[in-house]
Amino acid sequence: MDYINKSSLYLSNEYNAIFDNAGVVLMLIDKEGKILNINKSGLRMVGKNKEDILNVLAGEVFNCINSWAEGKPVCGIGKNCVHCAVRNIFSNTFLTKKTNYKIEGTLDVVLNNNTTKLNILVTAAIINSNNNECVLLTIDDITGQKKLEHKLKISEERLKKAQQIAKLGHWELDIVNNKLMWSDEIYRIFDIKPQEFDATYEAFLNNIHPEDRDKVNEAYTSSLKNKTDYEIEHRLLLKSGKIKYVLEKCHTEYNELGNPILSIGTVSDITELKEKENKLQEAIETKDKFLSIIAHDLRSPFNTLLGFSEVLMKEHKEYGVEEREKMIKLVNLSANMAFNLLENLLSWSLSQFGKIKFSPEKLNLKTLLLGILDGLQQLAHRKNIQILETFFVEAVCFADKNMIATIFRNLISNAIKFTNRNGTITIAAEKENGFLEISVTDTGVGIPKERIDDIFCTNKNISTKGTVGEKGSGLGLILCKDFVERHGGKIRVKSEIGKGTSFIFTIPLLKDELR
């Protein structure tokens, strides 16, 4: 009996039409792995006629690249070929008598003289008919689907990379089920691992900065109520304590009843942009401060200089010796004020543009301090202020001499300015965790609590007159903070109205001094 007639033993006539015209490859295979029957889809796949296929091994029929031996189309590797998904599946089915359902595999075949990898889904089931056992194989070619999946995967990876570069993520909120989906980039922006996130709207709100939480919630709920999109900038408070700025945009879809069902949106990390905006704003405020000082504070000592020098030049013979000495002292004081202000202005402007070179060196602070005090004793003497220096340690620091001198000069000058006549200024130092902590304490008028936080801010003009009308620019303390921080130290202030003020700053000790 030939195989064409024999195949009718395994499939009744009523199923022949279904078998032959099925949209997937169908084959009947015996225990030897030879094809008993194949449908039209199978013939199209292998590109052969039916009479050339029957009683032939499946590896030969599919032109498997592993089935050629000495130039002949035979199943060269044999029945246990690890490459053959078809052989392995139907062999397992014969062995176990169990159906294998949609097992995924590959076949490396030769089609149109080109080697091609086919991705297939194979289903194998035992058929018993007329005491003959065979396997019905269903082969579904999913090569095209796999290529699409591969392209989709590449596209998704590129999208993720693009979002990472742009620091822009997308999200979806299933409003009905309160399920929130974040892209990978949003998890990076929020610095959260997916397993740490509850994926709900409430969990999202919990990651927003507490001061911005109500604002964001109000923006979203208002957009739902008014059926409008929204855009909002807000801050995130990360678990590390770091603050980020983000720009969020949202669009909501509604059902036929007008109820919101899905919100989609984007979150972009604009922290760098906000930092640049802040720096730009600081630059504008610096410029305004600079111009204000030139226009007002610098004019005052020069007015004094011009006024008294003109009087001395034209009318000095009309005044006695004591009166002339008094005028000369005022001229000298105004000249010193103008010089100190110009010096601070120059240092400040150079600091703002990064033009001051930081050159730390081995430095004996007590020697430096004594030299600065010599230059300030005259100012203190005019108000009968006593300056006490209690540097009990010969502290050697690793610091920039000019910057430290500027810090001392400004803090001590400030203390003199705001200390009443017959007051006291104490300068002390002690070692603390690898740093030298230095304090300049006066018995002056003190600083109101509400102004303490602003004294180091460029955009806060808090310059006030001293106890005998001395004027200042407010630049000195700003310079002190800048120069202390350049050393890796910190500066703080303690004050009480009517009792005095202490400015405390730290600078690193020389390594040998840490012992």
Describe the model.
By secondary structure, this protein is of the alpha+beta class. 42% of the residues lie in helices and 27% in strands. The strands form five sheets. A five-stranded antiparallel β-sheet has the order 2-1-7-6-5, sandwiched between helices. The chain has a five-stranded antiparallel β-sheet with strand order 9-8-12-11-10, sandwiched between helices. Strands 14-16-17-19-18 form a five-stranded mixed β-sheet. Helix 10 (271-297) runs antiparallel to helix 12, helix 13 (365-382) packs parallel to helix 14 and helix 14 (401-417) runs antiparallel to helix 16 (475-486). The longest helix is centred in the middle third of the chain and has 32 residues, at 321-352. The termini are far apart.
Task: Show the helix and strand layout.
Elements: H1 3-6, H2 13-21, E1 25-29, E2 35-38, H3 40-46, H4 58-61, E3 68-69, E4 72-73, H5 85-96, E5 100-111, E6 114-129, E7 132-141, H6 143-166, E8 168-174, E9 179-182, H7 184-190, H8 201-206, H9 210-226, E10 230-237, E11 243-254, E12 260-269, H10 271-297, H11 299-315, H12 321-352, E13 361-364, H13 365-382, E14 386-390, E15 396-399, H14 401-417, E16 424-432, E17 435-442, H15 449-452, H16 475-486, E18 491-496, E19 500-508
Parallel strand pairs: 14-16
Antiparallel strand pairs: 1-2, 1-7, 3-4, 5-6, 6-7, 8-9, 8-12, 10-11, 11-12, 13-15, 16-17, 17-19, 18-19
Helix pairs in contact: 10-12, 11-12, 12-16, 13-14, 14-16
